[in-house]
Amino acid sequence: MTASERRPSDEDRRAAQYAALEATATDDDEDLDTVLARMREARKEIARRQRSGST
Questions:
Q1: 51 contacts 8 by C-beta, under 8 angstroms
Q2: 27 or 34: which leads in pLDDT
Q3: Cβ pair 42, 17 in contact under 8 A
Q4: Is there a contact between 42 and 23 (Cβ–Cβ < 8 Å)?
């Protein structure tokens, strides 16, 4: 396995960062329960990706 196969590209990392930012961003008018549910799902997805070895 080469280094490029082990590491995500800058574009992949940037996409993951934007996805995390979007998942944790809140709108003042948004229901708190909705925000918490979205954050819970984002954490589950992150954990799933970490377990599978993908980022």
A1: no
A2: 34
A3: no
A4: yes
